[in-house]
Amino acid sequence: MNAIKFFLEGMKRFKTVGAVAATSKFTSKNMVKYMDFDNAKCIVELGAGDGSITKYILQKMKPDTKLISFEINELLIAELRKTVGDDPRVTIVQDDAAKMGQYIQAAGFEQVDGVISAIPFVIIPTDEIIEQAHKYMKKGTKYVQLHYSTAAKKRYQRIFGNVVIDFVMLNVPPAFLHVCEKKED
Ligand SMILES: C[S@@+](CC[C@H](N)C(=O)[O-])C[C@H]1O[C@@H](n2cnc3c(N)ncnc32)[C@H](O)[C@@H]1O
Prior knowledge:
Elements: H1 3-12, H2 14-17, H3 25-32, E1 42-46, H4 54-60, E2 66-70, H5 74-84, E3 90-93, H6 100-106, E4 115-117, H7 128-136, E5 142-147, H8 153-160, E6 164-168, E7 175-181
Parallel strand pairs: 1-2, 1-4, 2-3, 4-5
Antiparallel strand pairs: 5-7, 6-7
């Protein structure tokens, strides 16, 4: 998707999109590195947008691993379908990520091997989606969240009991990746 189109959609729906530029290649690669692709059966992506991060997840995924990508924005999901819709490993879900449980189960999984999220929780006050992600993750797997500040850090600390910040300068604006591990079921 071109940068101007993303900028205009980000401005128009800032309360849900929460960004005016797609995530950079450098940041995407940094987010993806926390997944254990060798052993993953199913990975979940929250707030896939136009597929900026999605394509790097798919680049690393094995042929038999599944990706479930959630996105609610109609314009962005159309771009997402164009970018990665032909890949049989990905299921694109046009629905609220809070309902991830029903889609994970429908895909034949009880729990997943990691979650990558770009949903702007700094401007979304409820913890429901983060709690659902924690619930459906396997013990020992990682949750990686994109933010442009550390304002929501305490929320991840409360839910996961741990969070490490990975600062990425080469992004517009610079990114603070929040990386959490699911310690216990
Ligand atoms: C910051 S943008 C990230 C887009 C893309 N992943 C990227 O990194 O460039 C956040 C995305 O989360 C989506 N989003 C917000 N709330 C959501 C929800 N409850 N369920 C699914 N997607 C949501 C927005 O529509 C938006 O596309």
